[in-house]
Amino acid sequence: MAQTSDFFAPQAFEADVIDCQVEGTIPDGLNGAFVRVGGDWAYPPKHADDSPFNQDGYISRFRFRNGRVDYTGRWIETERYRNNRAAGRQLYGYYRNPYDCEPEVANIDEPWRNTLANTNVEVNAGRLFALKEDAPPTEIDPVTLKSKGLFTFGGDYGSQTFTAHPKVDPATGELITFGYEATGLASDDLVLTIIDRDGAITRETRLKVPYVSMIHDFAITEGHVIFPVFGYVTDLERLKAGKIHWTWDREAPTWFGILPRDGEANDLRWFKGPNRAIVHTFNAYTRGDTVVLDAPIFDNNPFPFFPSADGSEWDALKSRALIRRMIFDLNSKDDGYREEILFPDLPVIDLGRVDDRFMGRETRYAYTSFNDPAQPIDRDRLGTGARRVINSYGVFDMHDRTMRSFYAGPTHALQEVTFVPRAADADEGDGWLIGTASNYAEMRTELIVADARRPDEGAIGRVVLPFRANVQIHGRWYSDAQLDFGPDAGMESQK
Ligand SMILES: [Fe+2]
């Protein structure tokens, strides 16, 4: 649970800041919006040991235009948010367990109605979606950031759930997505759906998983999709007992399901390996009969709030992600695969990204955050609220196995990094790293802009909010060409 003194404590207000304070400069070409989604407790959780993933959704936007930046933050008004507001208290129990909710809002047969939409954003056909893996998208008005309700593609969408990490194929503009627990709580159905750039569903493939597991993210290549099935497990019995949705089974093998993008259910092939946690991926590609997946991967349970099935204590030391490459031979006679650790001495945060213009193709660079203990830290000014200090972004060269880093400062903790290309036709890796940092000394949020090719030269610009913004889970950058965010607030105020 969040301490009242730290950056994760509830903030619980909406905000508009016109013409934010900028230190340094914002690059000329950086026009568009950085949209972030995370959570906040509108009302305290019922259980002190609940997952922070059970916070109400909150969406915020840094709008960039000609060197000026406006900020907007709004609650995501799901059915659940509105029910709690009407009651003036928390009606919902443990993470993703309707059996633990107050009966009038439980929605046991329609669990997607309990979604918080608090994990990520994506755009398709001019629509902005807030996403969480337990429900269809929540549509958000990109101009006002007001919530418009669940979106099911005209009723055509065929799963109860929709991942928070769909992929956009850069060549076709297709949105490739899936839902697990697709036909009900703890169901072993997975539905893969392909949505064209105009918002029409063009393909749906219904699959079965080896066991019911968190499939938070996946990967695409030009020819395949890859689903990781790993240690977080659940079943109806557990949910009916009122427990938190996931438990970590250290005996559970890891499975990777690989399916040709145009394949049918019987084309799905499963590869099996030792217990791991693959919460997020970087990217993947197909070369001949080989599929390669790059991802930050844990050897153990990364989340202390999802308890171990065997009752063992959470082990922080074993819960560090290392950047790995999984190599699958589609011609092999057995179900094994090869695992390489690319940067063995460098534990990273697993919120990793690549240049999205090359999604599904071999990418040279991967971006994520990490703690660099060699950099200065100002413990006195950090205060006691700082639980962890992730002070650096890493630009990981997957060819040369080298890394260049950006250091945020002695009182700063970084959230997820995002790559923004310098221009639509720029080379891979030519652009900016952006993301928010928590400045613990000032207890305020700063958005950082650094050059992705020269990260070690420090920030080009910082957008300084006069308060600490809600902590994000994921954020994405959209250029003005990708989504119309309407007139910026500064322009509106001049009318
Ligand atoms: Fe995620």
Automatic annotation (TrEMBL):
It comes from Novosphingobium pentaromativorans US6-1. It holds the Pfam family RPE65. PANTHER family: BETA-CAROTENE DIOXYGENASE (PTHR10543), CAROTENOID 9,10(9',10')-CLEAVAGE DIOXYGENASE 1 (PTHR10543:SF89). Its EC number is 1.13.11.-. This is Dioxygenase. It comes from the Bacteria. Fe cation binds at residues 165, 216, 280, 474. InterPro entries: Carotenoid_Oase. The keyword Chaperone does not apply. Binds 1 Fe(2+) ion per subunit. Its cofactor is Fe(2+). Belongs to the carotenoid oxygenase family. GO terms for molecular function: carotenoid dioxygenase activity; metal ion binding. One of its GO terms (biological process) is carotene catabolic process. Keywords: Dioxygenase, Iron, Metal-binding, Oxidoreductase. The keyword Metal-binding applies.
